[in-house]
Amino acid sequence: ISYSQKCDGIFDCFDxxxxxxxxxxxxxxxxxxLKASCWLLGILAVLINVITITKSASSVNQxxxxxxxxxxxxxxxxxxxxxxxxxYLIALSVFDSIHGKDYCRNQAxxxxxxxxxxxxxxxxxxxxxxxxxxxxxxxxxxxxxxxxSLTVPARVNKIAVTKLFRP
Length: 167
Hints:
mainly alpha, 69% helix
């Protein structure tokens, strides 16, 4: 096989040696920056969101209004969604560490396997859960501001608008 046919994305050899060799270097996460980012962001996401979920869930009993309770539940859902994304990143990093340079030879098996499918479900569920909860929380905040403008003076309404954009 000619040199130009190596690492071109087309498997010309039955043993995959033209595409799956050291010079092609196919891995799940191709460079060190992606590997480090996945590990760091995954670990931080899991740790921070476990703390967030724990604090928000433990303060649910102290909610005095239905709006406050709903907000706490939505914050827990955002934390759960982000926790799932963190688990996904860590699992992807672990699978990358296990398969390493052998990923190219096992690519079809990996992509059609249960682990990849479960990780896809976790990733999709986590992102959609966070998106739903953030959208709901934003709509509740918007409704509160719109509703407050009907009954309070303009000075107080300006304070409410500034609080909307302040974290």
